[in-house]
């Protein structure tokens, strides 16, 4: 739920950039950096001087283009805890704020020095990689515990989604 929500927010932002930015010159520094990474990162990894020249020519052609042909913000890995989510928001230029009460609930350590979202990520990864059985996860939790964890994740994601929606609506990704 958490990972797919963040992926959808990034997908919506990518679509908004493509729809409303007339060229890469219109992008703010943070989104421009993410654009370069999404478009050229795999080609830069094994770059030689010749490849660097070709990439520079491609980029110069794009600067003169009248639209952004493709732009995909990379989806996060399966480690969408609150710290990583907030890092993602910052990386696209979103100033993330939440009220102190929610922040306290989200950052509260629940087990083994892990926050609620850290614990959810750990369980998700254990299930995804076969380290724990579904019957084992949550067996020591009550329905109230599970509902509380779910409600907290939903409350937090609603704030994250709201920040993405405002950023897109205000075209915060543009200079």
What does this structure look like?
With 175 residues, this protein is mainly α. It has one domain. It contains 7 helices and 2 strands. Strands 1-2 form a two-stranded antiparallel sheet. Helix 1 runs parallel beside helix 7 (143-169). The longest helix is centred in the C-terminal third of the chain and has 27 residues, at 143-169. The two termini are 32 Å apart. The model has no long low-confidence stretch (mean pLDDT 85). InterPro entries: HEPN_RiboL-PSP. Residues 14-166 form the RiboL-PSP-HEPN domain. This is RiboL-PSP-HEPN domain-containing protein. It comes from Rhodococcus zopfii.
Q: What is the CA-atom radius of gyration, in angstroms?
A: 19 Å
Q: How much strand content do the residues show? A: under 5%
Would you list the SSEs in sequence order as H and E? HHHHHEEHH
Calculate the terminal CA-CA distance, rounded to whole Å: 32 Å
Strand order of the largest sheet: 1-2
InterPro entries: HEPN_RiboL-PSP
Pfam families: HEPN_RiboL-PSP
Domain RiboL-PSP-HEPN: 14-166
Protein name: RiboL-PSP-HEPN domain-containing protein
Features:
175 residues, mainly alpha, two-stranded antiparallel sheet, 7 helices, 3% strand, elongated
Task: Spell out the blueprint of helices and strands.
Layout: H1 2-20, H2 29-45, H3 49-64, H4 82-91, H5 100-107, E1 109-111, E2 114-115, H6 116-128, H7 143-169
Antiparallel strand pairs: 1-2
Quick overview of this protein structure:
This protein is mostly helical and 175 residues long.
């Amino acid at each position: 739920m958490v990972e797919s929500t963040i992926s959808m927010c990034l997908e919506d932002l990518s679509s908004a950039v493509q729809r409303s930015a007339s060229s890469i010159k219109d992008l703010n520094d943070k989104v421009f950096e993410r654009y370069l990474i999404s478009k050229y990162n795999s080609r830069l990894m094994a770059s030689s001087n010749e490849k660097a020249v070709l990439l520079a020519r491609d980029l110069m052609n794009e600067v003169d283009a009248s639209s952004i042909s493709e732009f995909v913000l990379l989806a996060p890995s399966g480690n969408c805890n609150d710290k990583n989510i907030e890092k993602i928001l910052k990386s696209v230029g979103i100033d993330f704020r939440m009220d102190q009460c929610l922040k306290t609930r989200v950052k509260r350590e629940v087990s083994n020095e892990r926050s609620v979202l850290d614990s959810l990520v750990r369980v998700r990864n254990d299930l995804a990689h076969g380290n724990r059985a579904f019957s084992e996860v949550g067996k020591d939790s009550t329905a109230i515990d599970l509902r509380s964890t779910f409600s907290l994740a939903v409350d937090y994601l609603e704030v994250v989604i709201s920040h993405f929606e405002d950023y897109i609506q205000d075209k915060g990704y543009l200079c």
